[in-house]
Amino acid sequence: MANTESTMIPLGTLAPDFKLMDTNSNDEFTFADVKGEKGTLIFFICNHCPFVHHVMEEIIMIANDYRVQGLGMAAICSNDFLQYPQDGPEMMTEFAFQHKFEFPYLYDETQEVAKAYDAACTPDFFLFNNLNQLVYRGQLDDSRPGNGIPLSGSDLRGAIDSVLYNRIVNPVQKPSMGCNIKWKK
Fold first, then answer.
1. Which of 31, 60, 153, 181 is the most exposed place for a label (fewest CB within 10 A)?
2. How far apart are CA 89 and CA 82, in angstroms?
3. Mind listing the pLDDT tens digit for each residue in 121-164?
4. Which stretches of the chain are DSSP H helices?
5. Tens digit of each residue's pLDDT (9 = 90 or more) over 33-84
6. Between residues 23 and 3, the one the model is more confident about
7. Bond from prior residue into 123 cis (ω within 30 degrees of 0)
8. Full set of structural domains in the chain with CATH
9. pTM here?
10. Burial of 66 (0-12, 13-18, 19+ CB in 10 A)
11. pLDDT digits (tens, 9 = 90+) for 83-110
12. Residues 84-95, buried b or exposed e (16+ Cβ, 10 A)?
């Protein structure tokens, strides 16, 4: 289990667009398709990462708590499934079904979207305001597999609340940590 931190691209960065296949519906989605009225959360995950498994329950709760409040969201898997077959589209569909995703789970086969977002690890979170400007990139909270700190989603939830209620998002943000994205060779 590699401990890779997120890259922490500059706040204010405009959301890179994409057009990716949703492994749940087989429809293609762009950033505009998943954009929320008040903000948009794009996050990079994969099926096999223990860091993702550790936070999955909280991610689902965040999705359920905030989508009705105007937050759009989508998960993206960019791992090279030739090296990691468990991260291929069919397994993504199964993973999304198992965890009851109510948001698109997009497959970034070319890895161009991960590169555009400068995603480095799974999970890696990017929160944009209603003007598509990056206002948060970083960790869900301080919990990690095996560190004994309970999941709360406090860092990401605080940023989402700020976006929804037109408050300034705290610019002091801790990087996410997880398994590195499995880049094609």
1. 60
2. 11
3. 999 999 999 999 999 999 999 999 999 999 999 999 999 999 99
4. 31-34, 50-66, 89-98, 112-117, 154-164
5. 999 999 999 999 999 999 999 999 999 999 999 999 999 999 999 999 999 9
6. 23
7. yes
8. 21-180 (3.40.30.10)
9. 0.96
10. buried
11. 999 999 999 999 999 999 999 999 999 9
12. beebbbebbbeb
Token representation of residue 88: 């291929």
Q: Look up residue 33 and give its two tokens.
A: 């398709």
Concatenated DSSP letters of 58-95: HHHHHHHHHGGGTEEEEEEE-S-TTT-GGGSHHHHHHH
Q: How many helices (H) and strands (E) does the chain have?
A: 5, 10
- The amino acid at residue 61 is M
- 185: tokens are 């060779």
